[in-house]
Amino acid sequence: MSESESEVEGAGAGAGLGAGVAGGAADPTARAARPWLSALVDVAVALGAAAGSSVVLVDSDPGSVALGAVACAGLLVRRRLPWVSLLLALPAFAWADAFVPVMVALFTLGTMPSQRRATVVAVVVSALVHLVSVDTWEFPDFVTEDVVDAALYTAVPALLGAFLHARRSLADQLGALRASSARERERDAHDALERERAVLAREMHDVVSHQVSLIAVQAGALQMVARDDETRGAARTIRRLSVATLDELRSMVEVLRASGGDDRDASPQPAVVDVPRLVAESGIDATLDLDLPDDLSSAQQRALYRTVQEGLTNARKHATGARVAISARVEAGTVLLHIDAGPATEPLPDLPSARLGMTGLGERAELLGGTVSGVTRDDGSHRLTLQFPL
Hints:
alpha+beta
């Protein structure tokens, strides 16, 4: 083989092998999920091999052109039947000097870890086919040219395919290691959260429960010694609300102390059916209009209940004496809850606020794929809106 012919064929082989790399390095899972893409890549590889081989076969006889065409067509089944592609490419490799199909076939075999030994055999056989097809065995040109060409067109593509497969496997292992590290960090964060919950539970039990208990006791004492009915009624309401707060606080402490599992929801959770009672016990002049389906999930019902609860609390703080309208309905597959409070008609009480109510409602709404928003109008009235997909 002349030096110029080697250079031309090397350029054509490089172009075809580039197409083979594009087709063989893709993720096998992605190819399985998109078979049309795999077929399209195989067609592109075959056309690329044909373009690379045409450089060599442009002045060849019709028989050599036919062998090259058969070799390129065999690349269409290189994924499912790689040995068929190689066998169809060997005649053109031996008698038509078409190296590109063999290179692509050997590259494909190299990307298959289950074909390691068979790939070595294929490389040796393909190299021998090339050496046998050499016209003259003249030393040292035979060693410096033909043997080097045989290694270049057989061993190098197979090694490149094996390298790309190993690189892809290492990348997958690295991704799995990163995912494992992320899960480990998540577990550590969960453990830290559990410790914080235990501390918070102790604080709530030792501080908040004690203070609310004192309020209940003092309200009971005031109810006993009060002389007028209005004062006794107010004391009775304070005592009843304090007891209800203690019961709910006790449930929250139990949840915070739980370490996880199915026992978190063992205690009764508020639902939509409890909203009328919540409104009635609030002591606020409020109207309620609920038109909701019965199959709402427990998380959705808790979000609705807590939003109404927060809306009533805000009305008591920021719209004292105002009338409150609560409505909930389903529109176009979306649950809409509106809590409208008019402008305050009485002096606003000086009550402490952690300003975390809206944050908690926003987190609940986000978990349901919805949003919560509050709007204050120019006249002092405001609206609290919760919406989430049904």
